[in-house]
C-alpha cells in the first residue's frame, strides 16, 4: 500500500507511475497477483484523474494508438497464459528498465500514424503481460505540456487497461484475490491523487522526474536479479 500510494502520487503529477513503481514490488512480494491486480488499479486511476482534468486530450493520437492495442492485448494474454510467475517477474523488471532508459533520454520521436500504431501495439503487449503499458505512449508525448499529457494518458489507460482486463478475464487469469485487493486499494489511490493535486505545481520538474526514475531503476534491478536466481 505504501508503494501504491507513491505510484498514485507520481501518476497524479506526471501522468504515469503506478505500474512503474508498484509492479516490481508486487512481483517481488506476491507474484500471483500480477498482472490482474495492477491492471484493475490502472483502470481506476484514470477515472480519478479525469474528474479534474478533462480538457487537453489528444483525441487524434488516441484514434491511431488504441486500435493497435487490440492485437497487442491478444499477444499479452497469450504470454500470461504460457509464462510462469518467474518469467512474468523478469518481464516486468526488464520492461521497467527499458522504460527508465527511454525516459532518461530526450529523444524527439515524431507523433504520426506509424509511431502511434507501433506504440499502441507494444503497449498492448507489455500492458497486458506486465501491467506496464504507459512508457511507449509517454515516450511520444514526453515534450508536450503536462496539462495535455495527463488527460491523454488517462483516457489511454482507461480504454487500454479495460481491453487487457477483458482479454485476461476470458482466459481466467483474473482471480478473486486480485479483485478484492484492488477494491481495498481504492482509498489509497484517492489519497495519492489528492496529495498529487496539492503538490503538482511544486514537483513537476526535472529533479522530481529524475528521483522517480532512480526509484524505478532500483526496484527493477532487484526484481530482475531475484527472477534470475534459482
UniProtKB/TrEMBL annotation:
Its main location: membrane. It is found in: Cell membrane. InterPro entries: TM_pro_TauE-like, TSUP. It is a multi-pass membrane protein. The chain crosses the membrane at residues 31-50, 62-81, 87-109, 116-141, 153-172, 179-196, 208-229. It holds the Pfam family TauE. Keywords: Cell membrane, Membrane, Transmembrane, Transmembrane helix, Transport. Belongs to the 4-toluene sulfonate uptake permease (TSUP) (TC 2.A.102) family. PANTHER family: MEMBRANE TRANSPORTER PROTEIN, TRANSMEMBRANE PROTEIN YFCA. This is Probable membrane transporter protein. It comes from Nocardioides nanhaiensis.
